[in-house]
Prior knowledge:
The structure holds 3 protein chains of 3 kinds.
Chain A: H1 2-22, E1 39-45, H2 52-66, E2 71-77, H3 82-92, E3 97-100, E4 117-121, E5 127-132, H4 139-151
Parallel strand pairs in A: 1-2, 2-3
Antiparallel strand pairs in A: 1-4, 4-5
Chain B: H1 7-16, H2 18-26, H3 31-39, E1 54-66, E2 72-83, E3 89-104, E4 114-119, E5 136-140, E6 153-159, E7 166-185, E8 188-200, E9 203-216, E10 221-234, E11 257-273, E12 276-289, E13 297-301, E14 308-313, E15 319-333, E16 336-347, E17 352-363, E18 368-379, E19 389-390, E20 408-420, E21 425-438, E22 459-471
Parallel strand pairs in B: 13-19
Antiparallel strand pairs in B: 1-2, 1-22, 2-3, 3-7, 4-6, 5-6, 7-8, 8-9, 9-10, 10-11, 11-12, 12-15, 13-14, 15-16, 16-17, 17-18, 18-20, 20-21, 21-22
Helix pairs in contact in B: 1-2
Chain C: H1 2-21, H2 46-59
Amino acid sequence: MVLKRLRLASLLACVVMVAGLSTPSHAAELDISPYKGKVVYLDFWASWCTPCHLSFPWMNDIQQQYGSEGLVIIAVDVDHDRAAADEFLAANRGALQIVYDPKGAIASKYPVKGMPTAVLIGRDGKIHSVHDGFVVNQEDKYLADVVALLHQH
Amino acid sequence: MQLKKAGRVRRTLSAISATLLVAAASGYESEAAAQDFYGLDKGNNDNFGPGIAYSQLDAALLVYQEAGGRVQAIEPTGSLSVHGARGQVLSIDGVADAVSGATPNGAVPSSVAQNFVTPLKASGSSTTVTSASGGSTVIQLPPTPGQIATAALGRQYTVPANTLPMDRGFRDHRAAMTLGWSQPVGRITEVGASGGFSTEEDYQAITASAHASQNFNGDNTTVSLAVHGEFDTSSPFGGIPTALAAMSGQWKSPTSRQKTQLGLVLGVTQVLTRNWLTVLNYSYDRQKGYETDPYRVISVVDPTSGLPTSTLYESRPGGRQTQSVYWENKIAFGPALTDVSMRYFKDDWGVTSKTVEASERVNLSRHWYVEPDIRWYQQSAANFYHRYLVGNQSLPAFASSDARLENFHALTYGAKIGFRLSGRSEIFVRGEYYAQAGTDHPADAIGQLRQQDLFPETKAVYGFLGYQWKFH
Amino acid sequence: MVARFLKRVLIVSALAAACSGCSAIGPKPWEKDIMARPEMQITPYPLQASADDHIYFSKEAASGGRGFAGGGCGCN
């Protein structure tokens, strides 16, 4: 009985995750509990933020490389203007999971000091580090942080 | 969905581990696909701003024309700034201009024709000019006491009765260049310095400046301090005239005089709301040295008839301190952007001035925008401003009839039309009309001067064609 | 006269400083979309601004404010 329920729940979580991957989520609140046990790279971005144009291809890349090891990248869009976000995504989205946060409801719950900000959440569900901005040639450092978290089991 | 690849990431990954390199390399056959992200040639890549490296080229042409056949100028300018990903900026600016036309010499109009004599060619030269330029003729100057017998030549021009005296031989070229660098230093948001050089046929300036700025309050507040120094050399054609000496065609000495200038600007920029930016600047400037306009003269008139009896070179104090407060607001509402600025200025010559400027930019489409603008300016007279001096009174220490030092107000209005060719380039054209208004007939005018227009106001139109190009 | 002017300046800057002191003023980092527009920069068209400054400098007694005054010009 309990096992059955658990199986149902995990199936539901799976469906939610797949749905989240295929169509952007509209959640005002972000629930990262389904990703417990995974490393969550929570990226706050906007179409008007210039370095965000550089971080997207990089995030796509590491998502593809490390997805199987448990990396989940969630790109939280804070654009007021949904059309601008969609235009940006049409060119840059790749296969990233997108969450819209036009009022900053999610952003205000995390230490976001600028655009973009990446919050790294470990398998334990805790924030381990925060990347302020996306500086070209710092990708090594960003990736090292991600890899280190992936190695923590 | 097909994943697009980035060449730059491959290099990054290779630094992490060899196994990753193999994995990464296997996924990177297509260099063409990589262009979509980093190639920056696709529509999406019109991406310029903080945090990324790009360059910006600005080029412009200013065409300026004053009414009444007065000054006209053509000024091409260019600027290149190279931005690094970490906020470094290298900038090079260049200006050239060609100015010509007639300029009021400072004397009053008279009911009878007047003659004015200025030096000709090089000192002691006896070369004659082949043709009279701008209605002037070459004359033999009367020998001055102690002068060698070979009489010098001068240039004389005649101003008809009831006409504003203007020197039509005015012609000048200027070239200027500025080189600047700025970047973040440690915890300081930005530190920068620049140096420049400007040269005209009769004027040279060397400038240097340094600034530092700091962001606070989630990058919503910027406090900045800039200091500026300038060293000018005035080498007027004909030498430096003695203050309030009679106008003459003789070459004078010394041939040049200097002026130094030191100033600072303290600024606060505050983002008040999502769509409102405000800037408040305080400026202080201190000049020391030669402030006089070496070409400008002032009439001495008969106390009853008001007819000019002699013409003297002007004289200004050997220093000036100015202060100003400048407040600018930029407020965006949808496709409209309102820019309103105000300036209050005061100096120790007795000039106070107020300026209000407003413009409204409206983005009509993705490509087009229009921006009408208006500017109102008012100033009081300098305490040594005199339209003329009166014959029976003793000479003051300083006297200038420069209309720029008179009490007047001015209005500018115009509009700008811009067209964005793409996300990376833009072309615009701007047309402005500028008109000063002062007291043409002061109540205390003497004799014939009551019939004359005593404020030689400037009215000008100018066009500005600009091009801006950003690239990687 | 200058002292009174300076005093006025000090009051204004003190007010400005007081304003910037309260960190509640201003948008959050994710609300900077409008500020990120090129036309919201303080001097988006530097050549146009310097041409204006140059013209007014050569015709009026007051100059500067926005940045530095002058810049080597006999400007008759």
